[in-house]
Design a protein that fits this description.
By secondary structure, the chain is α+β, with helices and mostly antiparallel strands. The chain has 3 helices and 9 strands; from the N terminus they run βαββαβαβββββ. It has a single domain, classed as Protein of unknown function DUF952 (ADP-ribosylation fold). The model has no long low-confidence stretch (mean pLDDT 92). InterPro entries: DUF952. It holds the Pfam family DUF952.
Length: 117
């Protein structure tokens, strides 16, 4: 998986509600001081852990080189795994793609990426 990409999972409604003037500022930015993201291998677990009650999610693909804010990899308190966090608003021009992902019939998400690079 490419390390120049990060992923943020949200909903279309949240994306539309919290972006303006070229920036995306979800509630976690105010409440926690950062925007939660995932690396490629973490996407599926994150989607199924945090969005299990959703029929559909929006996966934002972020080009790290275009980010205007600092990224910190910090340990998740339960899993011990390090997740990327963006410390500031996400400039929307760093989002290179938006993918709508529907849940499987059993309600889970099955998201996988592979890369030859």
């Amino acid at each position: 998986m490419r390390d120049d990409l990060l992923f943020h999972i949200t909903t279309e409604e949240e994306w539309d509600e919290h972006k303006s003037d070229g920036n995306y500022e979800p509630e976690s930015l105010d409440s926690e001081g950062f925007i939660h993201c995932s690396s490629g291998h973490q996407i599926n677990d994150t989607a199924n852990r945090l969005f299990k009650d959703h029929d559909q999610i929006l996966l934002l693909i972020i080009d790290v080189s275009s980010l205007g804010e600092e990224i910190k990899y910090e340990e998740h308190k339960d899993s011990g795994e390090e997740y990327p966090h963006i410390y500031g608003p996400l400039n929307t021009n760093a989002v290179i793609d938006e993918i709508i992902v529907s849940a499987e019939q059993d309600g889970t998400f099955d998201i996988a990426f592979s890369s030859n690079s």
